[in-house]
């Protein structure tokens, strides 16, 4: 049954990430992925903060939000691809900035 909660949360997170990727931006810097990953980190911190000492929150609810929604929303593979593309295009400053900001946030 746990898989169902993770799957539903993951679907919700992935759809939210896709919706953000549709926002039109005119920049070579992958700002939308950076924003998505920062928002995901904030969300998972919020979820951990409000569920850490509460016995009334079910394990399935935590799985839905932490593993499902946050896991589906944030993406390391897109970050890796976009960083690689920046370096491949010799945009070393943007690539370095993107990696540093992504890892620090």
Summarize the structure.
This protein is mainly alpha-helical and 105 residues long. 78% of the residues lie in helices and 0% in strands.
Global Rg? 16 Å
Helix/strand class: mainly alpha
Q: Distance between termini?
A: 33 Å
What's the average pLDDT? 90
Judging from the principal axes of the Cα atoms, what is the shape?
A: elongated
Describe it.
- This protein has 105 residues and is mainly α.
- 78% of the residues lie in helices and 0% in strands.
- It has one domain (2-104).
- The protein is built from five helices and no strands.
- Helix 1 (2-21) packs parallel to helix 3, helix 2 runs antiparallel to helix 3 and helix 4 (76-88) runs antiparallel to helix 5 (92-104).
- It is elongated.
- The model has no long low-confidence stretch (mean pLDDT 90).
Structural topology:
Elements: H1 2-21, H2 31-51, H3 59-73, H4 76-88, H5 92-104
Helix pairs in contact: 1-3, 2-3, 4-5
Characteristics of this structure?
single chain, 105 residues, mainly alpha, 5 helices, 0% strand
